[in-house]
Each structure stands twice: as structure tokens, then as C-alpha cells.
Design goal:
This protein is an alpha/beta fold. It has ten helices and eleven strands. The protein has two domains: 69 residues, Orthogonal Bundle (Helicase, Ruva Protein, domain 3); 192 residues, Vaccinia Virus protein VP39 (Rossmann fold), CATH 3.40.50.150. Helix 7 links the parallel strand 3 and strand 4. Helix 2 runs antiparallel to helix 4. The radius of gyration is 22 Å and the shape is elongated.
């Protein structure tokens, strides 16, 4: 796809006029008017521009919109031009900003990890519901494939009585997750490098949660919504996207205490397969929940020995 130029500035690979520039756009209002040029790569172009400009100007979005006549200086204009071109190439706003809001905190994110998404907040919500009457108990929780640490940190912040173990096969990603925990002053998380249960020996947990790779190789969605910039091994799974989900359901039985919960995020069309595997493996109280788009997104089950 040939991306549009920003007020004439050519994006690499496009056929824009190199003599034109977006440098002559100098007020917030004029720059926000460029939203239509982002429509090809973004479902929320107005919000994208607001976030980029608010970061550059060091203000809130509310203040930004209240003072649209504000003028950018040359350095700020150059930064905006750079950020806009990155976004026009399809790079996620979170990578450009270097952070992403999740639950009730902000996380540092870059191309080592997936950008945390609102759907995953449903996973956290349901996990906390499963533990709603146990905040004062000393529990052992496990987050498999932690990525940026979003889920692990959200759980750990809920109660200092809970000890969270977070695993990931990406050492680089785990380094970023640990950095996020330090930044947020969360100390009750242990980070382990390894695939799924590889480093856990015979340890057992009061709850296991995971947002594993669940996209099938060749899925056309992998070319949309910034996904080409995100780590493929955190997105793609074999067996039509089901391989990691099925492996976790199978292996989790050896690491769950009797009566404890397993919760998984999955693709919108995978709930039935996940529930079927859980049933075959002897889990009970199996249920799925829908995200804000009305799509099946999280499935949970209780392990009964």
C-alpha cells in the first residue's frame, strides 16, 4: 500500500513531492487537521495526533484542545514531523510515545514487546474477580508470557500479599517488564526467563493467567493495526493459532492447586476450542466472557484434582 504524504512530505516508498514540507503547519489546530491523512493506517487518527502533540508540548490532551492556536517552535515541529512519518508508516503510537496506558498505570513499551490492549484488561478483571475474597491471603499467582509485564503488574498491585511469578521466553522482553515493575515500585513479582512452565519445576499456584500467542500464521490481520512492527513470536502460534493455548491448558493441571483457576485470553473464534480442551482435561466451571466489541475473548476454568 502506498501511504499518503503528510502535507506533501513523501513517506519512503511513496511518490510525494520532495519539495513540499509539513514544516509550514505550525499551530496545534493546523496540525490536528492532518488527521485525515492518517485514516489509511489508523482507526483513531484524531486521537493519535492529540497524543503525539500532547507529548511534544508536555501538556494534557484537554489543554491541547483548549489552546489550538498554540504555535510549535522549530524543534517541536521537527519532532512532530518525525513522529507523524513514523505513524504514517504504520508504527503503533505506543512505540512512538514509548509508553501505553493499561489498567490504572502507564507502561514503557517498545518493539521488544506487544503493545498492551484493552482486551487484556478483561483478563485482569476476571482474574481479580476470581480472587475477590482473597486479597489478604498469601497467594501464589503465575503470568505466562508476561511481555511488558502488564498483567503481572496489575495483579501484584492489587495486594502485597500476593506473590506473582512472571515468565517469558524473551529475555529482552523480560528485561523491559522488570524495568516497568521497578518504575512502578512493584516488588512482589519474580521474573523468570523460559517458555511457559519450563522454569517452574514442581511449583503450584493459586491462579494461572496468560495472554499467549493465538494468531494463525498468514492471518491477514497481521498486516494491519501496527502488527508488522510487533514481535511475531508473541503473536503467532501453530495449529491455526491454537497451539500455545492447548499446551497451556494441558500443562497447567500440574501447576494448579486444587480448586484454583486458569484464565486465558484468546482469539474471537477460539473460545469453543479452548472450552473443549479444558473439558477434555478435566477442568470444571468453564466459562467465557466477551470484550467490549461483543467478541469472546477470555475463558476460565477451575482445576479440580
Amino acid at each position: 500500500m502506498t501511504l499518503p504524504a503528510a502535507d506533501g512530505v513523501p513517506v519512503p516508498g511513496s511518490a510525494g513531492d520532495s519539495n513540499k514540507s509539513i514544516g509550514n503547519k505550525s499551530t496545534v489546530g493546523e496540525l490536528l487537521a492532518l488527521a485525515d491523512q492518517l485514516a489509511a493506517v489508523s482507526d483513531s487518527p484524531e486521537l493519535d495526533l492529540q497524543l503525539l502533540l500532547a507529548r511534544i508540548l508536555g501538556c494534557s490532551r484537554a489543554r491541547l484542545l483548549a489552546f489550538t492556536e498554540q504555535t510549535l517552535d522549530q524543534k517541536q515541529q521537527e519532532q512532530f514531523n518525525t513522529d507523524l512519518l513514523r505513524r504514517l508508516r504504520g508504527e503503533p503510537v505506543a512505540y512512538i510515545l514509548g509508553s501505553k496506558a493499561f489498567w490504572d498505570f502507564d507502561l514503557k513499551v517498545d518493539r521488544r514487546v506487544l503493545v498492551p490492549r484493552p482486551e487484556t484488561e478483561l483478563l485482569v478483571e476476571k482474574a481479580l474477580h476470581c480472587l475477590s475474597d482473597r486479597e489478604n491471603q498469601n497467594l501464589q499467582l503465575l503470568d505466562l508470557g508476561t511481555g511488558s509485564g502488564a498483567i503481572a503488574i496489575a495483579l501484584a498491585r492489587q495486594s502485597p500479599c500476593w506473590q506473582v511469578t512472571a515468565t517469558d521466553q524473551s529475555e529482552a522482553g523480560l528485561t523491559l517488564a522488570a524495568e516497568n515493575a521497578r518504575q512502578l515500585q512493584v516488588e512482589n513479582i519474580e521474573f523468570l526467563t523460559g517458555s511457559w512452565f519450563e522454569r517452574l519445576g514442581t511449583r503450584s499456584f493459586d491462579l494461572i493467567v496468560s495472554n499467549p500467542p493465538y494468531v494463525a500464521a498468514g492471518d491477514p490481520h497481521l498486516q494491519e493495526d501496527g502488527l508488522p512492527f510487533e514481535p511475531a513470536d508473541a503473536l503467532i502460534a501453530a495449529d491455526h493459532g491454537l497451539a500455545c493455548l492447548m499446551e497451556i491448558v494441558e500443562q497447567a493441571r500440574r501447576h494448579l492447586k486444587p480448586g484454583s483457576w486458569l484464565l486465558l485470553e484468546h482469539g474471537f473464534d477460539q473460545a469453543a476450542a479452548v472450552r473443549g480442551k479444558m473439558s477434555d482435561c478435566g477442568y470444571r466451571d468453564i466459562a467465557s466472557w466477551q470484550d467490549l466489541a461483543g467478541l469472546d475473548r477470555v475463558t476460565a476454568a477451575r482445576f479440580v484434582s
